[in-house]
Design goal:
This protein is an alpha+beta fold and 160 residues long. The protein is built from 3 helices and 8 strands; from the N terminus they run αααββββββββ.
Length: 160
């Protein structure tokens, strides 16, 4: 990648003295470092880290780094937050949905694709999840039941 970046930038000196001077060499190094930083930042933005509004607009999920993986938590709801009433653990059924981890252990599995699990507070079930970045502004979330069960998907829109 560095070889490609070096080859992509051909600096033409303003004059021969500048090309041979320390200043010319320094300027080349500064521009090259800036180009590498831009490439690095561009790569980091390929992860869907940020706040995403679910398709029906009822909630916002915050996706962030969790160690080597990504995870997502319910950050806000359109109305008053509901309770996690269908959780299989009776001790958790009275908790607010705010802060519940709904995207769990998402790991890269292709170009702009992450796989892991998801928790659906509406039915209290865990699904195999695939998150696919469609653009900087939208991601597709696909959830499938165990053993290739029924699948569903929706598109989330970036809030920030």
């Amino acid at each position: 990648m560095i070889a490609r970046a070096e080859g992509a930038f051909h600096m033409k000196p303003l004059n021969d003295k500048l090309a041979d001077s320390e200043a010319g060499g320094l300027m080349k190094r500064v521009i090259f470092a800036a180009a590498l930083t831009a490439v690095s930042i561009g790569g980091a933005m390929a992860e869907p880290v940020g706040d995403w509004r679910v398709e029906d607009g009822s909630a916002t999920v915050r996706i962030k780094k969790c160690g080597a993986a990504l995870c997502g938590f319910i950050a806000a709801t359109r109305g008053a937050p509901g309770k996690d009433e269908r959780n299989p653990d009776p001790a958790k059924r009275n908790r607010s949905v705010i802060g519940i981890e709904v995207l769990i252990n998402l790991r890269p599995s292709g170009d702009k694709v992450w796989t892991g699990t998801s928790y659906n507070a509406e039915d209290g079930l865990i699904y195999h999840a695939t998150v696919t970045e469609q653009s900087d502004r939208s991601i597709e979330i696909k959830g499938c039941g165990a053993n290739g069960g029924i699948c569903g998907s929706e598109t989330w829109t970036r809030v920030r």
